[in-house]
Design brief:
Layout lengths: L1 E4 L1 H5 L3 H13 L3 E5 L8 H11 L5 E3 L1 H4 L12 H16 L3 E4 L2 H10 L3 E3 L1
Parallel strand pairs: 1-2, 1-4, 2-3, 4-5
Helix pairs in contact: 5-6
This protein binds magnesium ion (MG).
């Protein structure tokens, strides 16, 4: 089973809680997929450092550039958060993510539309 986690406003807001939860999930062979709106331009260095500091291990990480191509021209609402939301939800669908944990309303709305289970952080 795959479970998706956002970073900013999610893992970053309660690192101790998520570190524990993710350890338990990994014990039960749940695949941890980190899906973040962070860009490669923000640098993967900080993210790596934070994840090590928070003691959060994951199986795969997707940065914005890895999934932003999942939106079409029709999705461009002039709202970057909405576009990221749609792209994240579509990536979850594509990967077969069982549950996406995210704090952003736009992601939750897109999960509803795309039929992806979600947990609002
Ligand atoms: Mg977030």
């Amino acid at each position: 089973m795959k479970i998706g986690f956002d970073i900013d406003g999610t893992l970053q807001s309660k690192p101790k809680f998520y570190s524990f939860l993710i350890k338990v999930l990994r014990y039960f062979n749940v695949e941890i997929i980190v899906i973040t709106g962070r860009s490669r331009f923000d640098g993967i260095g900080l993210t790596d450092f934070q994840m090590r500091t928070w003691d959060i291990r994951f199986d795969k990480i997707f940065l914005r550039e890895d999934y932003e191509n999942l939106v079409t021209e029709a999705d461009f609402a002039g709202n970057l958060d909405k576009q990221i939301g749609v792209a994240k939800a579509r990536l979850c669908k594509k990967l077969g993510v069982y549950l996406m944990v995210d704090d952003m309303e736009e992601v939750i709305e897109a999960c509803k539309t795309e039929g992806v289970r979600y947990w609002k952080a």
